[in-house]
């Protein structure tokens, strides 16, 4: 079975609902996954926007998710499980799509990594650069899902 990630509320490649963005309630979507490698000891989630004018913008960093967990509820808040990193809005947890108005559609990638260790050894609040550095040596596989959002 292939490692798969599903984000509820919109189809793969389709528009992300307004209520999940800065123009709505800024509520994180529910996620479910399956088919991870047998050696998986934890998961790491990264949501980013590679189309941001300043370079890739990080919307959600969550790591050390226990291997027994295979979903996140809609409206997930930091501290429930794993550790939350600091997104590019300067806060822990989810920051919904919020591209500049008139900048065209942006792509938002939800990337879930199967990790070979139970903990990456990072404190809560880590930045993306720190996460990438430690994740590099421990990722066993990756599943992704993409949505789009545009502010006119």
Keyphrases for this structure?
5-stranded antiparallel sheet; Phosphatidylethanolamine-binding Protein; 152 residues; 1 helix
Write structural notes for this entry.
- The chain has one helix at residues 128-135; strands at 4-7, 31-34, 42-49, 57-66, 71-72, 83-84, 106-115, 139-149.
- The protein has 152 residues and is mainly beta.
- The protein has one domain (4-149): PEBP-like (Phosphatidylethanolamine-binding Protein, Alpha-Beta Complex), CATH 3.90.280.
- The strands form 2 sheets. Strands 6-4-3-7-8 form a 5-stranded antiparallel beta sheet, covered by helices on one side.
- It is globular and about 45 Å long.
- The chain starts with a strand and ends with a strand.
- The mean pLDDT is 96.
CATH H level: which superfamily?
Answer: PEBP-like
Spans of at least 5 consecutive residues whose pLDDT stays below 50 are none
Q: What value does the Rg take, in angstroms?
A: 15 Å
CATH-defined architecture: Alpha-Beta Complex
What's the total number of strands?
8
What is CATH's topology name?
Phosphatidylethanolamine-binding Protein
Distance between the termini: 40 Å
Tell the overall outline: globular
Lateral strand order in the biggest sheet? 6-4-3-7-8
- Helicity, as a percent range: under 10%
Average pLDDT works out at 96
Sketch the topology as an H/E string, one letter per element: EEEEEEEHE
Main β-sheet description: 5 strands, antiparallel
**What's the number of structural domains?**
1
Structural class: mainly beta
Range of strand content: 25-35%
């Amino acid at each position: 079975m292939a490692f798969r990630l599903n984000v509820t509320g919109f189809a793969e490649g389709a528009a992300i609902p307004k209520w999940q963005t800065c123009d709505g309630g800024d509520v994180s979507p529910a996620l479910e996954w399956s088919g991870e490698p047998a050696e998986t000891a934890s998961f790491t989630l990264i949501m980013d926007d590679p189309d941001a004018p300043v370079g890739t913008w990080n919307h959600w960093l969550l790591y050390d998710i226990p291997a027994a967990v295979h979903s996140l509820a809609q409206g997930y808040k930091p501290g429930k499980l794993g550790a939350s990193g600091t997104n590019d809005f300067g806060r822990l947890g989810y920051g919904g799509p919020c591209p500049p108005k008139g900048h065209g559609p942006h792509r938002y990638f939800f990337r879930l990594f199967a990790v070979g260790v139970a903990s990456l050894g990072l404190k809560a609040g880590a930045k993306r650069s720190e996460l990438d550095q430690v994740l590099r040596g421990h990722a066993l596989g990756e599943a992704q899902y993409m949505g789009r959002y545009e502010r006119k």
